[in-house]
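User: Structure tokens for both sequences below?

Assistant:
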Amino acid sequence: MPIAIYMFALTAFALGLAEFVPIGLSDIMAGDLGVRVQSVGAVVSAYALGATISAPILSALTAAWPRKQVMLATALVFSLGSLMAALANDLTLIVLSRFVAGVGHG
């Protein structure tokens, strides 16, 4: 099989993992941030909203771009959003970062 197939499979796994892992970490995140567990649910919602809102918009805006360039750009946005979320120390910044990562997913 071509290496691209393996890369796409790995990317799909990483995106799915990044979307749903915070659900299992809700208690830990809430304790570390000093907020209620219910508030941490916004982290998952922000990611989903970013992906949902950006998918049709980015598809239209990048229709003329080469697919490789689109994949690299969205992977960069996703990676930056994920890095921002990993380094964030308050819920607001984490939610914003997760939205940015969701935009890359979309």
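Moving on to the next sequence.
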Amino acid sequence: MNITTYDLQILVSLVYFALTSGVLLVKCVRPLRKLLNYGKTASTGDDGNSPPSEVIEIIAKYAVVRKSWFTHFYICLFTLSTATYFKACHETIVGQSDEATYKNLLIINKLLILQGARRTFESFAVTKFSPTSYMNMTHYLVGISHYVLIALATYLGLSGNCSGSAALTIVDYILIAIFGVASLQQFRAHYHLAHLVKYSLPKFGLVASPHYSYEVLIYTVIMIFSTKNGITLTSIMFISGWVFVVTNLSVSAIQTYQYYQAKYKEEFNLKWAIFPGVV
């Protein structure tokens, strides 16, 4: 049986749907919450003493990897996105693509390369991973799946839209500038978190997890580039990826917000977890 690009694009969207549903399931079913907790949020919440909770407790305790394995996510993104840049297109596909679509996907590819390179650098040079901090294997697998999927979505989009690249527009420059600002601000937030005195409260002014807010903004730019020339199966992959990022980071931000509330009490006075005026 031959697997076509169309089949793989459908598969990417379906897997993203499954990942998003899984994150929501973990959030809604109390005994499962420990599976996606990590670091400071790993000990939050009362999940009861029912038999299912005991099973989850065993999985959460023993099926773990070091939190420093977060680095693998960004190495994966950078490596796969770079390979895509050099391998996705070798010749123009006459009659099946247009220059604008190819340009947008090529921009997405380059932005993901930059994102992967920056986050890899941060992981080695900025972030200070505690040797005693762990995350559950399910969290690790969900994360690595996202970066494989977003790189695969780019590859599949480019391989089906090889064409001469059109010139950048004003909208392109604005979106790229937003990506740049969001990346810089996310770096500043990560730098601040990495240099906190242990057990001290981060000094953020608007939301509890601005680094998550900027991550969502980064993927919003990528999603917009994928839809600029209409909704296609390619853009649906990126929309699915964006929905996953928003859902996953919102859940993580809410957990972090609740941790700050419980630990710092009156000292913590921020109103929003990730999106001002919303969550």
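User: Anything stand out in the second?

Assistant: DSSP finds eight helices and two strands in the chain.
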